[in-house]
Fold:
Amino acid sequence: MNFQVDHFINAVVYSLLGVVTYFITFFITDKILPADLWGEIINKQNTALAILVGFMALGIGIIIAAAVH
Structure:
């Protein structure tokens, strides 16, 4: 029983660590880009940039998931 609780705690800790790392990485990327990211996507309806940001978010997520796993 205690073995399962340890696994659950590890999964929660690593999940939270992965989510925090993901948001920090996304925030840094948003600040590094020269254009106003959200203004381009929402106001100007820049679909190409939205797709690029989506794939970038997936890539960061995959890297973090692989590191945590």
About this structure: The two ends are 22 Å apart (CA to CA). The chain is about 85% helix and 0% strand. The mean pLDDT is 83.
